[in-house]
Write a structure and sequence with these properties.
16 helices; about 65% helix; ADP-ribosylglycohydrolase fold; single chain; mainly alpha
């Protein structure tokens, strides 16, 4: 199932990229040559197979969706707050501010702020892509912003996150790569900040534009799941998040058969099993699945 491959891809990209997060591409080359193995370490001193906030927040969001039968901003905010209360190793500054705002005010949506255009809402958007597969466009956008605006209420963050959701959903329905590239080009047309062609892009920051430029370039110029993720992580910078996003897109596009077994077995077994189980559960509440199985889908 492509949904399982997308979630496995998210976790694999997260774990693979965490080793070289915040390193420059030159530093990576000097130390590893080409970084291609899930070995842990990095600035977080991870054990081999551990993941970071990218996967953890996705699972927290997915659990809230399954408990409430859909995406709900307050449920998402509570899930994120509970996750942070568990003292995770890494919490992004923008994510932390949004969660603290929710705790202090009870408000699950921040005021719009162009300075909140980080990649935090995008890195955790896979559960939304899965549970809204087959929904109307406006329903997908609404669901995306319900979770995103808990911590990131920015036009650019919304545009990038919604593009990634569309790419995953196109890939899940076995759409051609050309169609995915067209969707990326539409984003660039609407928001020129995301332009990435004919540019030398490396060491992406946590800014959504930097992250997606690296992800898009790698996805377009490679032809396999493995080569896409290796390309992304060796750019350095916010490598775990960039690779997590690339992993969910390329996993959905190429499927489980293209994910190297050595990477699957390297991920903490409990984490991987939870990802795969959640993928199946989220797909089963999606409009496309409900329609295919003859169940009633509410507008």
């Amino acid at each position: 199932m492509r949904a399982r491959a997308a979630y496995a891809g998210l976790a694999i990209g997260d774990a693979l990229g965490a080793t070289v997060e915040f390193m420059t591409s030159r530093e990576i080359e000097h130390r590893y040559g080409i970084h291609r193995d899930i070995i842990g370490g990095g600035w977080l001193c991870l054990v081999k197979g551990e993941v970071t906030d990218d996967t953890e927040m996705s699972l927290a969001l997915g659990n809230s969706i399954l408990l409430h039968g859909g995406v709900n901003s307050r449920a998402a905010a509570r899930a994120f707050s509970d996750w942070m209360r568990g003292k995770p190793r890494d919490v992004g500054n923008t994510v932390r501010r949004g969660i603290i705002h929710f705790r202090n005010t009870g408000e699950s949506e921040l005021a719009p702020n162009d300075m909140d255009a980080g990649n935090g809402s995008c890195m955790r958007c896979l559960p939304v892509a899965l549970c809204t597969l087959g929904a109307k466009k406006e329903q997908v956008v609404y669901a995306s912003r319900q979770q995103a605006h808990v911590t990131h209420n920015s036009c650019l963050a919304d545009a990038g996150t919604e593009c990634v959701i569309d790419l995953v959903q196109l890939a899940l329905t076995n759409t051609s790569k050309d169609a995915l590239v067209d969707r990326i080009d539409n984003l660039v047309t609407d928001y020129s900040e995301f332009r990435f062609r004919n540019r030398n892009i490396s060491n992406p920051s946590g800014y959504i534009v930097d992250t997606l430029q690296v992800v898009f370039e790698a996805f377009i110029r490679t032809t396999r799941f493995e080569s896409c993720l290796i390309d992304v992580v060796n750019q350095g910078g916010d490598a775990d998040t960039a690779a997590a996003i690339a992993g969910m897109i390329s996993g959905a596009f190429y499927g489980m058969d293209q994910i190297p077994e050595i990477w699957l077995t390297a991920i903490n077994r409990s984490i991987l099993d939870t990802c795969l189980q959640q993928a199946e559960s989220l797909i089963k509440i999606s409009p496309l699945f409900m329609e295919a199985t003859g169940k009633v889908v509410d507008d």
